[in-house]
Amino acid sequence: MLRWLYIQLIWLHPAPFRWRFGDDMLDDFDRSTLRTKPRYFADAVASLARQWLLRPEFRPESMPVAADASLEILGVPLFQTIETYKPPPAALLQGGLLALLSISLVVLLVGKAGGVARPFLIGVHFSRPSLLPIDRNSMTGSDLNTTVKLGPDPFEAWLKLARPYFTSMPVLGALDADRDLTLSPWEIGNAPAALRKLDINYDGKLTPEECGLHIDPKSVPAALLAQLRQRFMSYHPVLAALDADHDGEISSWEIEHAARSLKKLDRNHDGYLTADELIPFEMAVHTGLR
Amino acid sequence: MKPDPGDYLPLAPATLHILLSLAGEPMHGYGIMQEVLRQSDGRYNLGPGTLYDNLQRLMKQRMVEEVAGPAAEESSRRRYYRLSQLGRGVLSQEIARLEDVVHEGRARLRALKPRRA
Fold first, then answer.
1. ipTM, 2 decimals?
2. How far apart (Å, rounded) are the C-alpha atoms in residues A55 and A39?
């Protein structure tokens, strides 16, 4: 198998090189030990690239054909192999096989990308009622009086909590352009522009106060104020994600790369940031949602 | 017009080792690889692709030429190579150049050594 693969690699070299050195390369491969064979493969691949990319002077296209033209004028039948000018059938077959393998690999990877194997629909089966025998003797003549009670939609509870939370957080208010309490892929992509609108003092960055912290700096000691500002930025998931270097402010670089930072909050990888992904964990625990 | 050996300098490591291997008797490809391995104390492991690519170029530049193998190995399909007159000249000039480099390097290193009081 290894030998066959190595022969294919030799076959992919330009014809003049292959004719002249192919046998020697194969002979060298046969003499090598099993441990050195992977290195020989790597070397053959490098040689392949070198021959096709860096050695145009040795390729068949650059060989002179003037002598053949003069013979044709004299009426001498001209015979030539097509291999010099066109890819041989074997090479075309190899190319086709390689393409098929590559496509299969890509399809396989795409199918497995979400971690869930997609089942293939190969037919539809409609079950006939006659397959299920019904004992009608046991049925009563009256209608069933069972009442089905539906519980509250669990996501409704998240939305109830999200509504005041989004309103109290200027950052979320700015990001959620359509006010549906969900950040769509477009809103995430538009995050840098939305965040820049919050930069009231035009210094290029967002301070905790610009992000929604309301504390009178005169009422608390400086050390405690710094601690509170830091805590505010780390408590809210959206701010913690945006403040990538955790220095307590959203710098201009962090604003520029806001979309990438926000995508880290998308736990279910559906492209949307919903309430359960944006509301602080402690808040959700406190309200019984977690 | 005869080509000037100096035009081919400096040589790439692979080229230098191949020319050096062929400085003695004619050799086939596998022999050259083994000889390069021996010369470099196992540090430079030349693969067949690299070797024949270099040989192809060296033959085009007329530094290496193909010769008939030894009589005992006539049935072998292996090709033998040897250094041409031009190849020998290029190798000599490269060795002289490397000697100058080594000489210069030693002198510089000696000057860098801390002097004893």
1. 0.81
2. 22
- Sequence letter at residue A147: T
Average pLDDT, chain B: 88
Question: Which two tokens mark A262?
Answer: 């926000």
DSSP B19-33: HHHTTSS-EEHHHHH
Asked if B30 has any chain A CB less than 8 Å from its own CB, the reply is: yes
pTM: 0.44
- Interface check for B31 against chain A (CB to CB < 8 A): the answer is no
Query: Chain A: nearest CA to B49, how far in angstroms?
Result: 5
pLDDT in tens, B13-64: 999 999 999 998 899 999 999 999 998 888 888 899 999 999 999 999 999 9
Q: Which residues of B touch A57 (CB under 8 A)?
A: 60
Cα dihedral A242→A248→A249→A251 (10° resolution): -70
Report pLDDT digits (tens) over A71-116. Answer: 555 555 555 555 555 677 788 888 999 999 999 998 888 877 655 5
Residue type, A158: W
Confidence of residue A66 (pLDDT cuts 50, 70, 90): very low
The shortest CB-CB distance from A24 to any of B52, B57, B60 is to: B52
Average pLDDT of chain A, as a whole number = 79
Backbone φ and ψ of A272, nearest 5° = -110, 145
- A43, B47: Cβ pair inside 8 Å? yes
B contact residues 41-100, partner A, Cβ 8 Å cutoff: 45, 47-50, 52-53, 55-57, 60, 77-79
